[in-house]
Amino acid sequence: MQHADSDRSPLTADATVEGRIVAVLSRVLGRELVGVTAATRLFEDLAITSVSMLELLLGVEEELGVQFDPESLEPFETVGSFTDYVRAHLGSSAE
Questions:
Q1: Residue 22 region, left (φ>0) first, then alpha (ψ -120 to 50), else beta?
Q2: Alpha carbons 4 and 49: distance in angstroms, whole number
Q3: Does domain 2-94 fall into CATH 1.10.1200.10?
Q4: What's the CA gap between 34 and 65, in Å, rounded?
Q5: DSSP conformation class of 65
Q6: pLDDT single digits (tens) 10-50
C-alpha cells in the first residue's frame, strides 16, 4: 500500500534522486515547485517547453554526474518517467 501512495506523495528537494530532479526543475523553470509528485506531467502540469527540457537534461547531468546519449532519449510525460530514466543511467550506485 505504501508503494501505491508514492506516486501521490509530494517530492521534496532533498538528497534523493527525485528531490534533486525537482530542485533542478525548479531552477530551470525559475519558480518554486510545490506538490510535485511522480505523476506530475512535465508538459501539461509544469508547462515545460522543449528548450526547458534540454536545460533540465543538462542540469541533471551536472547535478548527478550522469551523461545522457541524445539518441537514446525517450519522450517523458511525467516526473516519474523522467526519474526512472535518470535512475537507469545512474545504476544502483544512486539508490
A1: alpha
A2: 29
A3: yes
A4: 25
A5: T
A6: 444 445 898 999 999 999 999 999 899 999 999 999 999 98
